[in-house]
């Protein structure tokens, strides 16, 4: 695996071809309508979308999951897919959605006094409140781990950058900085499953399997400069754009 710096950029190693697609295309996508129509999820979808709109200063007419995926792509494009900047801006979106007095109270009442219970509560809230974004999940490991079966956001975005810099790293940072809860998110790029492990610190990026990975063949950003035969154009003759750069 290619090593990466703290900025999520490649440090060296061999170029890896874009081969992975995630779950087999023969498998039908799950039906998420029941999640999208849930009253709590309708509220959360609206909150996230309006926060993204405020960040981008770009209003949208319709409200829904597809609009959130589109806005997340726009956010990364606006900042030229710079991993550190994108992470900070996404974390600010989370602060907009969940900000105010709630994180302060949670950190002081739960995280600092009863950390194990705070980790369990965070896992339960994630399990309930994220199904519209990531799909079905289950609680395991003493109710401190959320196992996502097949991440809806990763599949819809088709992009490792979207996963790592638009979800994983800013979510880990927000939980630690604002809520006082350690969190390690472990995506599986082969089947789109994922684990949210509360109470566990994320490893250094140089040791994190999520980094140094090539993006998906279907990534809308990473494939822009690909020729019709699948080879790279001259603009991509530099080392393969890894996690922070697609």
From TrEMBL:
Region entry Disordered, spans: 1-30, 226-246
Classification via Pfam families: D27-like_C
Domain Beta-carotene isomerase D27-like C-terminal: 140-206
InterPro entries: D27-like, D27-like_C
GO terms of molecular function: iron ion binding
Protein's name in the database: Beta-carotene isomerase D27-like C-terminal domain-containing protein
Organism (species): Rhodosorus marinus
Lineage: Eukaryota, Rhodophyta, Stylonematophyceae, Stylonematales, Stylonemataceae
């Amino acid at each position: 695996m290619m090593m990466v710096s703290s900025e999520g950029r490649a440090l060296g190693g061999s170029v890896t071809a874009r081969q992975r697609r995630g779950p087999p295309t023969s498998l039908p996508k799950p039906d998420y309508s029941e999640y999208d129509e849930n009253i709590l999820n309708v509220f959360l979808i609206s909150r996230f979308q309006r926060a993204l709109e405020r960040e981008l200063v770009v209003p949208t007419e319709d409200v829904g999951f597809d609009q959130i995926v589109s806005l997340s792509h726009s956010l990364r494009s606006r900042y030229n897919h710079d991993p550190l900047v994108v992470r900070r801006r996404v974390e600010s979106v989370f602060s907009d959605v969940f900000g105010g007095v709630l994180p302060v109270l949670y950190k002081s009442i739960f995280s600092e006094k009863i950390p194990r219970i705070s980790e369990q509560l965070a896992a339960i809230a994630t399990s309930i409140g994220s199904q519209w974004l990531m799909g079905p999940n289950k609680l395991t490991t003493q109710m401190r781990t959320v196992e996502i079966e097949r991440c809806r956001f990763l599949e819809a975005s088709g992009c490792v950058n979207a996963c790592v810099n638009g979800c994983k790293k800013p979510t880990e940072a927000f939980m630690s900085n604002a809520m006082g809860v350690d969190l390690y998110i472990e995506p599986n790029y082969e089947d789109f499953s994922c684990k949210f492990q509360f109470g566990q610190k994320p490893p250094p990026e140089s040791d994190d399997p999520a980094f140094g990975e090539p993006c998906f063949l279907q990534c809308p950003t990473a494939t822009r400069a690909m020729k019709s035969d699948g080879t790279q154009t001259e603009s991509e003759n530099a080392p393969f754009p890894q996690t922070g750069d697609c």
